[in-house]
UniProtKB/TrEMBL annotation:
Cofactors that this protein relies on: Zn(2+)
GO cellular component, as recorded: plasma membrane
Record SUPFAM superfamilies: Metalloproteases ('zincins'), catalytic domain
GO terms under biological process: proteolysis
Domain Peptidase M13 N-terminal: 10-358
Name of the protein this chain belongs to: Endothelin-converting enzyme-like 1
Location in or out of the cell: Cell membrane
Topology of this chain in the membrane: Single-pass type II membrane protein
Keywords: Hydrolase, Metal-binding, Metalloprotease, Protease, Zinc
Primary subcellular site in the record, as a coarse category: membrane
Stated family: Belongs to the peptidase M13 family.
A Pfam family annotated for this UniProt entry: Peptidase_M13_N
Organism of origin: Drosophila gunungcola
Domain of life: Eukaryota
């Protein structure tokens, strides 16, 4: 209640009313999410400090802890950037033969660390609820190299003498222009097609595909192994051009792009290093949470969350189940007049949706974590540890793509081990993952003010039900609706586009929104949550007001981003589409929070 500005009229601008005094209490750009993230990072920092002082603590005998502590120590010992160290760790054999090694072989070595941004891209991606696949793509025409003096000084120590910085920049820019020109064929339609390895060999004969796969993935491929390929015509054109281009130039460009990529990975302390200062513990923790997702989540679970899990899951799964049942009923009601086949497919998607609290594999033994621990090596300094963490992640993903062990696969598809390239600093709020048909609830969310297992219903449903409802409705948004219950891409949006009532509902919402898919989820998720909470709860004393205030605080201080409108826009618009809000706050017709144009989306 201390954030409420009682001088504002909630019917004119509910955000101004509910979050009016937020800025008085917190710094600019602070949200409830950033407050929660800061708390978690401090918990890590305090734990590491304690364990480094107490070498006999029992945690030292658990999986991951010793290696995480070593990584943390080496990171905080980082005194100044030494980009040359990254390059040296690639191996002297590779560096001494940049003028003679085929460009794709160099790219395959860099691909072992997850780099695949140029020439011909080969990467392993999560494909559906039970499989990864290898994707082949032409050069990424949207990303070019920014050759800084720091990168040039590091790479120009490798091999024969290098041209001056400006001259090399010009050579790289000319190369990029040619790559951009070839990166898409005239017939490209931005869709992936399935090709066997044998078909790829026959279409692009100028590349030793078997050798490339062995170098990057560590194994051979059968001739009938299936790949997802984007524009094989463009790939063939790029291969033809690159095979005729100066090998040394191509490989120098690859090494420069690789170093640039490492610096651009989220929260790399080397990139954020300030002159004369060592890395701070908090910087290192942010970096480790991104680059060592499974080990860091395991540490947080065992040290902080395990004791709360049972009580939390009892409540969270109960609310999730209620929302599922309500949404299934809503789909079955078929107010949009969809075909019965589409109704059945969408109901199946809701019915088979899963939820994972904390984002670790549920119900696994310690042996699973010990086996994962054995695959990960730490080295002598930050640079070696950083590369090893990348190697650890991408080797796991590569092996998963080729594994036939169904028991092991089931474990790995029960959670989302984020790629180190994930743009945000860990998952800050729950999110729906379309390929797995699963909602992940991160540790940063299962904390006050968002969630507490003992909350009154008005507070519990005001945030948890609205948040889960929002994420569930992403399964039906205008983009992710195309993924079915098993995470396979279907043509559901094409079918929906032929339904007049559906098009009308989407058109009603598609005004002044940064992202239509967020608006549809805000509105339909709020309605679903309120329907689930519903009944007489709203009319009891101040329950209705508390419900909407709790919902509002999720948005306080949020200025928006490229994917979301500002918190004030999202909150006010979604609640203006909920008639019960106007009833609870006694808003008259014509006020800002009582929209006369109610959009019938789901």
């Amino acid at each position: 209640m201390e954030y409420v500005d009682s001088e504002k009229n909630p019917c004119d601008d509910f955000y101004a009313y509910a979050c009016g005094k937020w800025r008085e209490k917190h710094e600019a750009h602070t949200t409830a999410t950033t407050l929660s993230e800061t708390q978690i990072n401090r918990q890590y920092e305090d734990l590491f400090s304690y364990l480094l002082r107490n070498l006999s603590a029992p945690e030292h005998g658990y999986p991951f802890y010793r290696k995480v502590l070593t990584h943390f120590q080496n990171c905080t010992a980082l005194e100044r950037p030494n980009l040359r160290r990254y390059i040296d760790l690639l191996g002297q054999d590779l560096l001494s033969s940049l003028g003679s090694t085929h460009w794709m072989n160099v790219l395959a070595v860099l691909g072992r660390y997850g780099y695949h941004g140029h020439y011909v891209q080969m990467e392993v991606r999560w494909y559906n609820a039970s499989h990864h696949m290898i994707f082949l793509l032409p050069h990424n025409r949207d990303v070019n190299l920014s050759l800084t003096s720091e990168i040039y000084n590091a790479i120009s120590q490798v091999g024969p003498s290098w041209p001056p910085l400006n001259q090399l920049k010009e050579q790289f820019e000319n190369l990029e222009q040619n790559l951009i020109r070839l990166a898409k064929s005239h017939s490209a339609d931005d869709t992936f097609r399935k090709y066997s390895l044998d078909q790829i060999r026959n279409e692009v004969t100028e590349l030793e595909w078997d050798e490339v796969f062995r170098k990057q993935l560590g194994r051979s491929m059968a001739a009938d192994h299936v790949f997802q390929v984007d524009d094989l015509v463009a790939i063939k054109g790029l291969v033809d051009y690159l095979n005729k281009t100066d090998t040394l130039l191509l490989n120098r460009y690859s090494v420069a792009r690789f170093v640039s990529h490492l610096l651009e990975l989220p929260h790399n302390p080397v990139a954020n290093w300030a002159n004369g200062k060592r890395s701070r513990g908090m910087d290192c923790i942010r970096h480790m949470r991104r680059s060592l997702y499974l080990p860091m989540n395991y540490v947080y679970e065992r040290s902080f969350y395990a004791r709360r899990r049972s009580a939390d899951e009892l409540v969270i799964h109960s609310v999730f189940k209620q929302l599922q049942e309500q949404l299934e009923l809503r789909v079955q009601g078929n107010a949009l007049n969809l075909s019965q086949e589409l109704v059945n497919n969408l109901k199946a998607k809701v019915h088979h949706m899963r939820i994972n609290v904390g984002n670790l594999p549920p119900n696994v033994s310690e042996q699973f974590y010990w086996a994962s621990d054995q695959r990960w090596n730490v080295g002598r300094d930050f640079y070696e540890n950083h590369l090893n963490s990348l190697l650890y992640y991408y080797t796991l993903v590569s092996d998963l793509e080729g594994s036939t062990n169904q028991k092991e696969r089931k474990i790995w598809y029960s959670f989302n081990m984020h790629t180190p390239e994930f743009p945000d600093n860990i998952d800050a709020t729950p999110y729906f993952y379309c390929l797995g048909n699963i909602i992940f609830v991160p540790y940063s969310y299962v904390k006050r003010p968002f969630f507490y297992a003992g909350f009154w219903p008005a507070l519990l449903y005001g945030d948890l039900a609205n948040t889960l409802g929002h994420e569930m409705m992403h399964a039906f948004d205008t983009d992710l609706v195309d993924y079915d219950a098993q995470g396979n891409l279907r043509n559901f949006s094409d079918q929906l586009g032929q339904v007049e009532l559906y098009n009308s509902a989407v058109g009603c919402l598609n005004t002044s929104a940064v992202m239509l898919n967020e608006r549809t989820s805000d509105v339909s998720g709020s309605r679903l949550a309120l329907q689930t909470y519903g009944g007489e709860w709203l009319s009891r004393l101040d329950n209705g007001r508390l419900y909407f205030l709790q919902f509002a605080h999720f948005f306080c201080g949020d200025t928006g981003d490229q994917y979301h409108d500002s918190g004030s826009q999202r909150l006010n618009y979604s609640l203006s589409q909920v008639p019960q809000f106007a009833e609870i706050f006694e808003c008259r017709n014509g006020t800002g929070m009582r929209s006369t144009d109610q959009c019938p989306f789901w």
